[in-house]
Amino acid sequence: MLDFTSALYLGFQHPSGSLRPWARLTAGVPAALAAPSGAAGVARALAALQGCGAATLTTSTLHLFWDLFLILGGEGGVAIHVDEEAYPIARWGVERAACRGVPVASFSHHDADGMEAAARVAGRRGLRPLVVTDGVCPGCGRVAPLGAYLEVVRRLGGRVVVDDTQALGVLGAGPGPGAPYGRGGGGSPRWHGVAGPELLVAASLAKGFGVPLAALSGAGEVIGRFEAQSQTRAHASPPSVAAVRAAERALALNRLRGDTLRHRLARLVRHFRARLADLGLTAHGGLFPVQTLAPARALDWVAVHARLLERGVRTVLHRPRPTAGPRLSLLITARHRLVDIDTAVDALAEATAWRAQRVGGTR
Question: Of 30, 66, 69, 258, which sits with the fewest C-beta atoms within 10 Å of its C-beta?
Answer without folding.
Answer: 30
